[in-house]
Amino acid sequence: MELALRLLTAGESAFRLVALLVLSGLTSGVCEAGHPRFWVRQLAPGVFYGPAPSGEGDYRQLQRLGIRSVIDMRSFRVLAIAKERRHLQRMGIAYEQIPIGLDPENDCQLESLLRRLASERCCPVFFHCSLGRDRTGLIVALYQVRYLGFPPLVALEQMKRRQFNPRLTGLTEAFRRLVSQQPANGADAQSCSLHLDSIYDAGIRADARL
Fold first, then answer.
1. First-to-last CA distance in the chain?
2. Distance CA 9, CA 13 (A)
3. Count of domains in the chain?
4. What CATH number is associated with residue 128?
5. What is d(CA 100, CA 108) in angstroms, rounded to the nearest whole number?
6. b/e string for 154-184 if b means 16 or more Cβ within 10 A?
7. Is 17 part of a structural domain of the chain?
8. Residues 78, 161: one domain?
9. Which domain holds residue 107?
10. Which residue has the higher pLDDT, 33 or 145?
11. Residue 124 preceded by cis peptide, ω within 30
């Protein structure tokens, strides 16, 4: 009986040791890979975008890409914003906040952000909102139309494929306004405006079903 108890105790100790080693390895892997929802995509040479970084691995990924400046579009999440600013400053990466709301009535902020992204002094630059999907998707589409020569409808379709939420009509209205100011693409802008109307109507119908 005593021998059996000793063997059971030894077995439990071995199991605990193995479990600790496995958990340690898993935790290390998560830290090295960064936050599982974090990703980085390239929009143009020296211009990158994605969701907000949060884990140590996320910041290391930005550092490996040679990012010199980060532009944060979030207008809330005060504690997360302050933490990101401190973290980037410790790494020697410039941090700038250009807050963009979900219903941007002032196009000056959007214009300022687009100019900053086009400035070589910022590059390589990484810009983000919270999820890298809605406000970020808007800026990606506007950048494509203004600086990469994308037809507005093509930029809009890509914006939708990036899981843009069509119920955020304030962002689609901002896209409509700024695209309509592109004189070389007047016909495309008009088609894009009609397409945005259909997206808006689809969002209204989806809301009605909820």
1. 64
2. 6
3. 2
4. 3.90.190.10
5. 10
6. ebbeebeeeebbbbbbebbebbbebbeeeee
7. no
8. no
9. 28-132
10. 145
11. yes
